[in-house]
Every structure is written in structure tokens, then in C-alpha cells.
Fold:
Amino acid sequence: MSLPSSMTYIAADSAGGPEVLKPATGPLPVPKSDEVLIRVLAAGVNRPDVAQRAGSYPPPPGASPVIGLEVAGEVAATGAELTQWKPGDKVCALTNGGGYAEYCAVPAPQCLPWPRGYDAIRAAALPETYFTVWANLFQAAGRLHRGEAALIHGGTSGIGVTALQLAREFGATTYATAGSDEKCAACRRFGAVAAINYRTQDFVEEIRRLTDGRGVDVVLDMVGAPYMARNVRCLAMDGRLVMIAHLEGSKVDGFDFLPVMRKRLVITGSTMRPRSTAEKGAIAAELRDKVWPVLEQGRCGPVVHASFPLAQAADAHRLMESSVHIGKIMLRVAG
Ligand SMILES: NC(=O)c1ccc[n+]([C@@H]2O[C@H](COP(=O)([O-])OP(=O)(O)OC[C@H]3O[C@@H](n4cnc5c(N)ncnc54)[C@H](OP(=O)(O)O)[C@@H]3O)[C@@H](O)[C@H]2O)c1
Structure:
């Protein structure tokens, strides 16, 4: 595949609002020996991108300064050491940054094939939420098992939709919170047995009522400080609270940890981006083994709310910050 001498990407010359996102022209990234260069056809927009643009989530050392954590496209070139992928292969990938661009270099273990029957937009909508939900809800952190119950906050976020669908597929019962009745109805379609409009209902009381006082085994939280004590109250004996974000703050005053002892709770959390290539590759391998067959059978799959041309990345961020979306917001890069 012949490569152009330059590419279009989205630059953010300073931290700020969506207006700082502007198309720019620059050199293609050069893949390292263990990386593939992907000709990007579609890229996902994720809430961490909004935080990076605003200056509160800087890329880790060595990562591309270009925003964008997931892409789908075709392999355009491979690093010297690679035999796993070849030019022309259709892949989707969890990137280390650089996704809002016509070309993106990604460590090979972080790539997966497009599930059978998928197009670029749907394939690009998978990596960030599937890696995150698998690692936090099912692997070591949450250890959600068949027959258990989970409370998923932000049930219509990209993350929330994936969590609800996968939990249903793997035999768990889910409850969700969301900010409107319309979003609550969507949560039920994605697999929640009940959805709680947190603006009009007390989710602690509702979980107590819905579980006959038992509570849930896992809470997946992205809201943070104001939910800390309330999440603990929602958990059953031996429950796990998994924190993946702190949209409303990370510092809690006056937290009483006696219930943590009394109920033998585990409070944990993680961020995906700083994990090593080996760790991300191990998650990718499990996804390919356990989740890709489910996607190919159509029992789970991305819910795409809207897509924008790459040059309109600012509008995609405005939509995300409005929080009216249900599911994923995507960028069409080529094709
Ligand atoms: N730890 C990790 O590895 C990791 C990886 C990826 C994403 N994340 C985090 O997971 C969360 C979801 O990501 P996403 O890309 O799926 O986001 P998203 O689609 O933009 O969804 C976020 C949703 O959260 C709800 N929300 C509740 N409180 C909010 C607040 N104070 N500000 C904004 N939204 C609020 C909103 O829905 P309502 O109307 O229902 O309130 C909003 O639509 C984000 O916080 C993100 O940073 C963490």
C-alpha cells in the first residue's frame, strides 16, 4: 500500500473548549518495530478525549499528543518484527492516542479483527468501552459472575451500554442509573432489569427495594465523590465497588469505612490508558476469545448515536458535553 507524504489530523493547540479542535496537516506517524500503521476509516469519541482536550487528562509520556483512543481501518504498513498482521487487514484498535487522524500507529497486540459483518464505524465503536468494561467489570476488579447483580451508573454512556449488554450476555442481573426517563427506557432495552432516573429517584432506596434489601454484588461507578457513601450502601456482603472515573470529583470528606469492614467490601478502580502493551494485549486476547463470538452472533453490539466527519470533531465534542447522547459518538475519517 503506497503511503501519502502527509495526513490530516485534528490538532488542539491549547487546552480549552471544543473550538480548539481544528483540522491540521502533518507527517504520518512512523510505526515502531512492534506496531502497525493503520489507515483510519473511523474513530470513536470518548469522554476521556473531552478531558484531554480540556487539559485535565494529559497523555502519558511518549504517547501521541493527538486525541483519540480507538480506531478502525486497514493495516497500511507493519513494523519490522511483525508477522501477526499484514497490509490490507481490517483491524480495530485501542490506541495509545492519535486516533483523530488519517493514519495511526498502534502496538500490534492492541489490534483486533473487525467482527464478521461489521463496517468501520461499528468496529471503531468497540475498543475503548469493551477493553474498559472487560477489565473492570469481569476481570480482577469487578469479578462479576453469572447469577450476580450489578449496578451500572451512567447506563446510556458508551461504557454503560457495553456494561449492560455484556452483563446480560454473561448471565448477570443489572440495574442502571441515567439522567432522564428516555435514557432509562434505553437502559432497559440494553439489558437492565430496572433503570433508575437519578434526577427524580433515590438510587440507594431503589436498589434496596429492587433487591429486597440484599444489595448488589458490583457497582460500576464513574460519578465519584458524591456517590461514594451511597455506592457502599448499595453493596451486598462481599461486594465490589469499581471506580472508573470521577465526573463529580475524587475527594471525599468524612467517609465512614465501617460498612466496608462490616460487609467485607472491596473498593477498587483503574484507568486503561497507562496500562502496558502486554496488559492491553492480554485483555484483547480475552475479548477475541470470549466476546468477539458474541458480537458476531449479534447478541451484543455498539449503539451508535451519531457520526461526524473528522473535520467536525469539535461538533462531536459539543454533542458529548451536552450529554444528550445514548451510546457512542463517532468520527468518519475516510471511505
Ligand atoms: N477508567 C477507565 O479506564 C475509563 C476508560 C474509558 C472511559 N472511562 C470513563 O467512563 C465514563 C464514561 O465514558 P464514556 O466515554 O462512555 O462517556 P459518555 O458516553 O460521554 O457518557 C457519560 C454519561 O455520564 C453521565 N453523567 C453523570 N454525571 C455526569 C457528569 N457530572 N458529567 C457528565 N456526564 C455525567 C451522563 O449521562 P446522564 O444523562 O445519565 O447523567 C453522560 O452522558 C467517563 O467518565 C470516562 O472518563 C474510564
